Each structure stands twice: as structure tokens, then as C-alpha cells.
Amino acid sequence: MRKFFPVEELARDARFTQITMRESQADPRSSLVGESTGKRPKTNRLTPSRPDASDAARSLMHGIFVGEIQALEGAGRTCHDFETGDGRTTDTVPFALKLDMARQAWDEARHVEISVKLSDWMGTEIGQFAENTVLFEVACSNDPVLRLAGVNRALEGLAIDVFTTMKEFGDLAGDPYLEFCEDWMLADEVTHVKMGSDWLRRVTEDDPERRKKALEFQSVVDKIFSFGGTRSDSSESPIGLARRFRELAGFTDTEVTEIAEVSLAALEDRKAFSAASLQADATTAS
Amino acid sequence: MTATVSPLEFRFVKFDAALTERVADELVAALGIDRPVHIEIDETTPLGRVRATIGDDAIHLHVESGAFEDSKRPREQSETATAVNLGRILLRVRDRLHGGFGEAPPDDELSLRQMAAWETYCAGRLARLGLTVNQQRWLYNFRNRHGFTDAADAAFHQIWTADGLTWGELEAISTAAS
């Protein structure tokens, strides 16, 4: 069976449409949100009090659904792509790490099924929204330790933030299914982050340079996964940073603070990028 | 009656003014709108609000580009979304013009609950006109504003299948369910 599978060849049926992160971020309209009519809420945080709450929640739920598919694919690839060994070189991983990745793949498969049912409950069809493939892209590193940093700590860390936001949304709206399901998936994500943190420490115990490289990679991925400020402590971001659950998952206070700073920087970068795209389009048109 | 669209060409989205005019013309005819409709598309925002100003001589619609967008293909137009979102606002306009909705607050003063009830009433009628409308989407929206209860679901189905409601009747069903 083939190893190191490229993102362009992920198996999807005709219902799915995929877009890249760059395409998503290049939309020049994004920078102008809140400026066209002047009458907008003071916060973009996803809560039931937003007039567009139902549709925004449906869109985020579909994002969770495709994210779970890619997380399943990423964990599965890590089980298969590397030989069993002591993990001291980049071409091997300990057998127990493979077992943890297999358990994670099982969890993610269950999350996909839950997400499909929740989407159905909310009135969303499979493939109704474009699928951003950035999640799988960070699971394509040749070094398994970088995958642990990118997938388990950054991606699953984002999942903690998203599930916390959706759980609170369900609680406030009085939607028992949404709240319950998100709570259970959230518990799994905390475990996945902890597995990543533990294995990252163990595998790089005698290799500080490799550990440093992995944590630097995580920082880059955390910025990417802030989706241009979609997730941050700012009320301009629909998804908040779930500090408490991140603590439970093993993030230190310093690490959470760093992620908060990276997320805010991503928000500012996106504003600047969108404004530049808008200016470029306007120049081209004139 | 005919519909007009501005702008005719777009810089930030790949929309088709002619398609929008055709869809609007069909809806204006199907819904029996008695005056011209002008659609102004705001392509500078990806949000999806649609607002109407009813004049004696014409109806002016202000549409944010997200309302006509294909959720599978960002910045591209969806004919289905265009038809459904134009249909929703035109039905609200028709309700106001045809009487029985004189007591309804202006659109921007409607509560989220009131808006959800009226949107349900519009979406149900659009479905019966043959437009592609996902009933579960509107049920979810209704539940978010009225509660996840059997009473709310019963009210939803009463409104969804109704024709010829007045504002007072619609508001009474909605209030009783919440």
C-alpha cells in the first residue's frame, strides 16, 4: 500500500469541493466585514444571539465534519507511513505510538459519523460547503514528530477551541444534541492532544534539536490554524481560545499565551492581506 | 413588471447580472409583485443580508453578496441561492403590500424570534412554488429561536404549511410556541 499520500489525491466523491487555504484567505471581501452598512454586532463570536447564528453554526459544523475526515486520514497515515522502531530516526515510530494513532483514527471515524448526524439535524447536506484541505496538509510531514506537533498539538488543539465554542452554542440555544455530542468529542480531543504532547516529549528526549524543530513547526501550524483570526481571544473571532481545556490537555500557561499571541497576529495579518488583495483588485479594475 | 440589477459587472465576485435579472423576473411574475424591482448587489462583503425598501413606484433590494453565493465555490454565484434568497425577501414585501401585515414592525426592528417565524412562513411557500428549499435548515433556525421542544416543532409545521396568514396570526403561533 502506498505511503506518504499527497493532499491532492484524497479520496472524495462528487459531493465534495475542495479549496486551498490561500484561495480561502485571498477573498478581498473579508477585510470589509462590518464596514458596508455600519450596523453590525460588536462581536463576531459564534453565539445564538447573532442574527445569522443558525447558518453560521451549520457552516462551522460542516467544517468540523471535513476536519474530522482529514484528522482520520492523518492519524491513519502516521500508523502506516513509518516502520516500527525506537523512533530515534525520522523513519521509525514506537509500536505503542502506532497503537495510539490507531485509537485516534477510531475516535475520528466516530466523530465523522457524529458530525454527519449533527449536520443532518441542523439541515446541512454533505459537501454543501467547500472543504479546506489545510488540515491534512500539516499531516504530510516526513518526520513523525512534526506530525505529532502539527496534528495532535496544533490541529487537535484547534478542535478543543472549536468544540468548546459549539458546546457553549448548544447550551445557550437549548439544543441538547449539539451540546451533548460536542462535549463527548471534546473529551476525545483533550486525550489526543495529551497523547501528542507525551509522545513528542518521549521520542525527542535525547534530541533537543529535533524537539525544537517540532515546536517551531507547531507554532507555524498554530498560526495557520488560527485561520486568519477565525480563532483567537479577540471578540472579532468567531471561535474563542479554550484556555481551561487546553490546560487539561497538557498545554502550559506559556504555551497558551504564545498561541493567543500567534492567533491575534494571524487576525491582523489576514486584515492586511485582504486589504492588499482588495487594493490589487481595485487597481486592476481601474 | 421587470427587474433590474446593479452593478452589471463585478470586481470581487464572479456573479452574472443577467442571471440575477432572469431569476428575479420569474419570481416577480410567480409572486404577482405589482411594481418594478431593482436589485443592488453589495459585492464588498461576503455576508448575506438582504434588505428591502418599498416605494410607491418600485421596490429596492439591497443584497450582500453572500446571499447569492455558492457555498461550495466561494465568490461564485448559485442560481438556487439567488432564487431562494430573492424569494424570501419578495414574499415579505408582498405580505406587507397585500395587507394583513400592517402591524408588523419594520424589518430591522423584528426580533430574532419574529424573523424566524416569518422566514419559516416564506420558506414553506417557496417550497410549494417548487424552489429547492431544505426544510430541516429552517426547522433548525426556528428551534434556535423558539426552543427545542415539541410545541415549537408543532408551531413550525403549522406555519410551514400555511397560506394567507396575517401578522397577528403568525405572531400568535410564534408567541405561543416560545
How would you describe this structure to a colleague?
Chain A is mostly helical and 286 residues long. Chain A has a domain at 47-227: Up-down Bundle (Ferritin). Chain A has nine helices and four strands; from the N terminus they run E-H-H-E-E-H-E-H-H-H-H-H-H. In chain A, helix 2 packs antiparallel against helix 3, helix 2 packs antiparallel against helix 5 and helix 3 (95-122) packs antiparallel against helix 6. Chain A is globular. The N and C termini of chain A lie far apart (53 Å). In chain B, helix 3 packs antiparallel against helix 4 (135-146) and helix 5 (150-160) packs antiparallel against helix 6 (167-177). The relative contact order of chain B is 0.12. Chain B is globular. Chain B is built from six helices and six strands, in the order E-H-E-E-E-E-E-H-H-H-H-H. The model of chain B has no long low-confidence stretch (mean pLDDT 96). By secondary structure, chain B is α/β, with parallel strands linked by helices. In chain B, 48% of the residues lie in helices and 16% in strands. Chain B folds into two domains: 3-98, 2-Layer Sandwich (Zincin-like), CATH 3.30.2010; 107-177. Chain B starts with a strand and ends with a helix. Classes of the chains: A mainly alpha (286), B alpha/beta (178). Chain A binds chain B through residues 17, 19, 23-24, 27-30, 32-33, 35-37, 39, 48-49, 51-55, 58-59, 120-125, 127-130, 173-176, 278, 281-282, 285, and chain B through 11-13, 42-49, 64-65, 71-75, 108, 112, 115, 134-141, 143-144, 147-148.
CATH architecture field of the domain at 47-227 in chain A: Up-down Bundle
Main beta sheet of chain B, described?
Answer: 4 strands, mixed
Q: DSSP helix count of chain B?
A: 6
Could you state the oligomeric state of the chains shown? heterodimer
Structural class of chain B: alpha/beta
Arrangement of strands in the largest sheet of chain A: 1-4
For the record, give the distance between the C-alpha atoms at the N and C termini of chain B, rounded to a whole number.
39 Å
Q: What fold name stands as the CATH topology of the domain at 47-227 in chain A?
A: Ferritin
Strand segment count of chain B: 6
Adjacency order of strands in the biggest sheet of chain B = 1-2-4-3
Task: Please state the CA-atom Rg of chain B, rounded to the nearest Å.
Answer: 16 Å
Q: Biggest interface and its residues per chain? A: A-B, 41 and 33 residues
